[in-house]
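Deviations from the work plan: none for this task. Representative record:
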Amino acid sequence: MSETNTEVITAMRLNTLKRHFREGAKNIWRNSWMTIASVGAVTTTLILVGAFLALMINLNHIADNLEEDVQIKAFIDLTADEAEIEAVGEELERIPEVSLVQFSTKEEELQSLIESMGEEGSIWDLYEQDNPLSHAYVVKTTDPLDTASVATKIEAIDNVEKVNYGQEVVQNLFTFNSYARNIGLALIIGLVFTAIFLISNTIKITIMARRKEIEIMKLVGATNGFIRWPFFVEGLLLGVLGSIIPIAVIVSAYYYITNNVDTLTQFEFVELLEFNPFAWQLSLLILAIGAGIGVWGSVMSVRKFLKV
Amino acid sequence: MIDMQGVYKTYPNGVTALNGIDVTIEQGEFVYVVGPSGAGKSTFIKLIFREEKPSKGSIVVNNMDVPFLKWKQVPLLRRNIGVVYQDFKLLPKMTVYENVAFALEVIEETPRNMRRRVMEVLDLVGLKNKARFIPDELSGGEQQRVSIARAIVNYPKLLIADEPTGNLDPDTSWDIMRILDEINASGTTIIMATHSKEIVNTIKKRVIAIEGGLIVRDEHRGDYGYEA
């Protein structure tokens, strides 16, 4: 029975692991008011974090879609002959950032113009006899952010009359997107830290009440790891409990929004991520954040009571 | 068992509690530590199980160099030392059985051995039939017996008792002393700080008197020596 080894055994027995989980769960039950307070704090934060995440990820998705749509149109000189047009195409292909080069005849250009005008487009039908437009190359870049620099390169090519990529609009879109991403990220990080702070404070109060328990555990020779485990379990459970309501709220809200997106907004470019799998991925993420907050909060606050 | 040489202890607030202690205690001894309040008894006891570190001097307990133990080794030292306090230090929400079993859970004893051993020590302190009670349902003497049971449940070589009868009436105190004497008879070293003149003068053991941070008297089968 008495141990002869000089280092405390580090391998944990299965019984001990069970004991830690039992103790952690019991503590949740014994300190029911503190549990409610902590779970409430996690719940509130996770609802906010979850809503922000859903918003952020979708904004990002919309922004990606918009950026995908950005293309450069290089209009060819009206005087250029077939061989020269060909040469422009080859030169475009040679630009490293370019991912797609597509030739569009002036007839096709007119057709797409007419279509984009809708009802009023029929007026332009008259021009089919004498098309005033130029042939064009439609160019896409691998990274949409390279659009402006690629456009400048294309302008320098012989026989390119004009380059159009919606200069002003595109630049504003890119700036807006990068701001939105950074601000969203900062908000989410801020919220997560607030939650950790709240939880570690609540757990600190329950630990204060259990100081005696920790003191006695140390007195009878418990290792710090042994003392920490039930608190770890407790934090984990608090986090998981705290993420149930947020997941329910966000999944159902997202379900409602995705099903009614057409009536809720008038913009065609708003295309949300599919409910399945996005809602489930988001739930998993919320659960993970909740568990992480709980564990970190409790381990942080138990640490200072463990000094030998 | 215990060997202290040139031990000094000054607390961070400037209070000097111990002023050069040299003492050796052999395995199986029963030692009373007496002296006025604030003389350094508690500090002396705390140094043995590394509740405090000395400012200077060497302490060897159970062949372990106590002041230089790494924090990972401290639990190992404490598993060989049982400690009993004046205020029992029981966990109020746990039953008597759970309070005692606690000390065995910590050293990862198997459930079967745990049950057997806990009932064994509860029998030894005469509380076998109160295993399911919680501390508040017990008298002071019974609570102290539970804390003794917890202290000895993992067969420590050394039992430290800091005024174990301080909160108890005389009759109950004799009960506690009888149990401690039995534990000592089975080979466990006992160090007991006390203010009880009657106990020291009746159950004759080695007496170490500490005053002003120094051992002023150390006699076998000694007297309490102070007017109570």
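The longest strand of chain B covers residues 16-25.
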